[in-house]
Design a protein that fits this description.
Helices cover about 65% and strands about 5% of the residues. By secondary structure, the chain is an alpha/beta fold. It folds into two domains: about 5-375, no CATH class; about 400-490, Transcription Regulator spoIIAA (2-Layer Sandwich). Pfam families: STAS (PF01740), Sulfate_transp (PF00916). This is SulP family inorganic anion transporter.
């Protein structure tokens, strides 16, 4: 994909390295993201039923790998809840080694899908589904914080309020340091100095004290093993790619830059293969952390993504005892602000709702409802696209019109067909002719119509056949280009009748 000069300057690693100000932004953004990744990775490890190290190592290897291989600079990939839900049954029923084999196979499937051009399917995702995706993501991020705000000591609430105030107000004074980082450091110092008994990162799970090493899955190389892990690997591959490509599209819009979705697809695959070989649970793009990186911290290059992975490993292995002291209240506040910033508030304004077609608003709401109900962004997007497709087909089906055209030819009736003929719009075509009352010669003029599929040709055949049963002859005229070629190739050959 061609890039414009401003895009190269915005996402260039070399340009960032030459600019101390931009480099500081990238470094600090990576640090903030790393801090936000730790409790998430631990939580997703619990969902998957594995040791916290498996999720933390996955976040490290995914972030570092995708920083080099991915097609969307500044996007964060790590262990995710969607992937954790897909692979959890493998761990529960077959153990960790089968999980690692599943992750490796899932990565290989993603590479294959990338080579087959799966990224091009993104063009079929309507804007209403994209808005629903963004809004449902914001809702899920917010809902994920509620467990950290219920059944907790009273001190948690003023701490969250204080962190929110810092994140909102500090950028009005200075943007030299990311406000989320100031909130995290400030609240950690406060809770330690005041000896406040509040939930901390250390309460979420034990942090590792060693580096990840090569861990080849110890599974029998048999067809039975492949049959066991293949369904989960395919599910992981599809969910991971869908979330990653949707996130990449969202970041494209926020940063006003383009990205290579094909490269991102196979980059995700290779990153998962690497992750599986180093004992990680696999993952994909993380939308919440990506928003922290891109929107809250202002990062734009691969440097922030790479450093997020490196800082994560350093923090949990070298500074684990310090990181364990970070109050969850600080991270909750960061994620709440990410949720607020991610939601497309314009989409629910009364003025917008009045102008927007009801069908598009309905698709957006369906997408949000399904995602929130299933806690699965991929399922919501698929349902949203299907709903949009059905509504589009229903709307277009009524745009085809058949009208009588005056003619001086005796014994002849001319019909003009206008619009797009495809499986939805051509269904009613057969009913719009006067088979009994028309003369012996009927002309169907398709100059203002286009034939898109076999259903349309079959409908024209049905019209011709019904006139023939009345002893009348039909002449189809006006077809050009692909419509003509399709009609000539299929007409009279779509049924077994001779």
């Amino acid at each position: 994909m061609a890039r414009f000069p401003h895009e190269e300057a915005t996402t260039s690693v070399l340009a960032a390295l030459r600019s101390p100000r931009r480099l500081r932004t990238e470094v600090l953004a990576g640090l903030v993201v790393a801090l936000a990744l730790i409790p998430e990775a631990i939580s997703f490890s619990v969902i998957a039923g594995v040791d916290p190290r498996v999720g933390l190592f996955a976040s490290f290897t995914m972030a570092v790998s995708i920083a080099v291989l991915g097609g969307r600079p500044a996007m964060i990939s790590a262990a995710t809840g969607a992937v954790a839900l897909v692979v959890a049954p493998v761990v529960r029923e077959h153990g960790l080694d089968y999980l690692l084999a599943t992750v490796v196979l899932g990565g290989l499937i993603q590479v294959l899908l990338a080579l087959l051009g799966v990224a091009r399917l993104m063009r079929f995702v309507p804007r209403s589904v994209m808005v629903g995706f963004v809004n449902s993501l914001a809702v899920l991020i917010f809902l994920a914080q509620l467990p950290h705000l219920t059944g907790v000591p009273w001190a948690v609430y003023p701490l969250v309020a204080a962190a929110l105030a810092v994140i909102v107000l500090l950028p009005r004074v200075t943007t030299a340091v990311p406000a989320p980082l100031v909130a995290i450091v400030g609240l950690t110092a406060l809770t330690v100095a005041a000896v406040l008994a509040v939930p901390t990162v250390g309460d979420e799970g034990a942090l590792p004290h060693t580096l990840p090493g090569l861990a080849l899955p110890d599974v029998p190389p048999t067809l039975e093993t492949l049959r066991t892990i293949a369904p989960y690997a395919l599910g992981m591959a599809l969910v991971g790619l869908m979330e990653s490509l949707m996130t990449a599209t969202l970041v494209d819009e926020i940063t006003d830059t383009h990205s290579s979705k094909t490269r991102e697809s196979w980059g995700q695959g290779v990153a998962n293969v690497v992750t599986g070989l180093f004992g990680g649970m696999g993952g994909c793009a993380m939308i919440g952390q990506t928003m922290i990186n891109v929107r809250s911290s202002g990062a734009r290059t691969r440097i922030s993504t790479f450093l997020a992975g490196v800082f994560l490993l350093v923090l949990v292995v070298v500074l684990g005892d310090v990181v364990a002291l970070i109050p969850m209240a600080a991270l909750v506040a960061v994620m709440v602000m990410v949720s607020v910033g991610t939601f497309d508030w314009h989409s629910i304004r009364p003025a917008t709702l009045r102008r927007m077609p009801r069908s598009e608003t309905g698709v957006m709401l369906v997408t949000v409802a399904v995602v929130v109900a299933t806690r699965n962004l991929a399922i919501g997007v698929v349902v949203g696209v299907l709903a949009a497709s059905v509504l589009f087909a229903r709307r277009v089906a009524h745009l085809t019109r058949v009208r009588e055209v005056p003619t001086d030819a005796e014994g002849t009736k001319v019909y003009a067909v206008e619009g797009e003929l495809f499986f939805a719009s051509s269904n009613d075509l057969v009913t719009q002719f006067d088979y009994v009352g028309d003369p012996e010669r009927v002309v169907v003029d398709l100059t203002a119509a286009r034939v898109w599929d076999a259903s349309s040709v079959a409908a024209l055949d049905a019209v011709t056949h019904r006139y023939a049963t009345k002893g009348k002859r039909v002449e189809v005229v006006g077809l050009e280009g692909h419509s003509r070629e399709r009609h000539e190739r299929l007409a009279g050959h779509l049924t077994g009748a001779s």
